[in-house]
Amino acid sequence: MSSDLPLLALPTLADAADATAPRLLIIYTGGTVGMAFNRRGELVPMQFGRLERKMPDLTRLPFRISLLSLPNPIDSSNVTPQDWLYLARLIGRHYADFDGFVVLHGTDTMAYSAAALSYILEHLGKPVVFTGAQVPVGRSRSDAQRNLITALEIAAARHPRAHTVRVPEVCVFFNDELIRGTRAKKVESQQFAAFKSENYPPLARAGITLEFADKDIRLLPAGRLTVHEKLETGVAVLRLFPGITEAVVRAVLSVPGLRGCVLETYGSGNAPTSEWFIACLREARQRGVWLLNVSQCEEGRVVQGLYETSARFAELGIIGGDDITSEAAITKLMFVLGLGLGEEDTRRLLTQDLRGEITP
Ligand code: ASN
User: Which CDD domains match (predicted)?
Assistant: First the structure.
């Protein structure tokens, strides 16, 4: 798909040719935020049309805002790694012309997309804020306008004294919390507080004022933005449960073309000690499959070797995922394996903290 999609300038308070007002780009990808009911009574994504007619408060913002709508907006359940690469290319293409980016996206897979973009956009120096809604814009009690307006304010935010970018990270803003992209998890499908920051404090809270947790925001030495171009799709997630059979484990780990698998284990990274289970893992490793051990617990971390039930993992070459989320782990596998590096570098990157996804 071309990255030369038309930009629509929104009429705002900064219209009076205020050349100093922050320039922000909204990229609309779909999701409930822009949905309406079809004839069968199902919610489906629609084109936005004139966004400011549906969200009049947008016109009162002191920013220069442009809107770029994808020609075929989607429910985020249909998002693919190709969409992430495309979105990253779009941001790269417009990077120099805007001070910040807001991605309107469905909530269902927003945490995956935000994590994926965190890896793909290396040396990011500007905010990329994902947001969306639980109730479509234009419907009564919609959270769309509130989420979008604060996301725009965050994308425009600068340090009060130094005037440097306040949040040069990919993040998710939803229902008053700003969450690092690699720490976000969708935890609610019915309430407005749909996201949680897992194993890391929120980067900002929006009350009457915006309170940024500056000490928790990643400020990396400036570098040139690199937009990576490849993700490995030969990956899987294997979630353990008591009673999981050898046939299931073997089937997943021997999928043709499998390069990496997130093992969702119990507690601090524990799994059965049965010989058949260890043999399945060993054989997968011998076929060159990378295994990343992630806990099913929402908080805490993987500590391989703490219990006998994870004591053999290190010798098998299974990588402990520390306190990473499953969303950040599967996208990290896609990203790191997509780099096509040798054994040693791949292991190093999978173990390292790349974008604030783990607390080593
Ligand atoms: N199914 C929707 C989506 O992820 C849910 C939402 O946006 N609230 O696209």
Answer: L-asparaginase_I
Residues with active-site annotation: 32, 107
pLDDT in tens, 178-189: 999 999 999 999
Task: List the residue whose alpha carbon is closest to atom 3 of ligand 1.
Answer: 106
CB 36 within 8 A of CB 43: yes
Q: Report the pLDDT value the prediction gives residue 24, as an integer from 0 to 100.
A: 97
pTM: 0.96
Task: Give the pocket of ligand 1 (CB within 6 Å).
Answer: 31-32, 75-77, 106-108, 132, 134
Q: How far is the CA of 78 from the centre of ligand 1 (A)?
A: 10
Q: How far is the CA of 29 from the centre of ligand 1 (A)?
A: 11
Going from the C-alpha of 333 to that of each of 7, 123, 325, 339, the distances in angstroms are 34, 19, 12, 10
> Does the pLDDT of residue 252 top 80, yes or no?
yes
Domains with residue ranges and CATH for the chain: 8-227 (3.40.50.1170), 235-351 (3.40.50.40)
Q: Are 212 and 167 in contact (CB under 8 A)?
A: yes
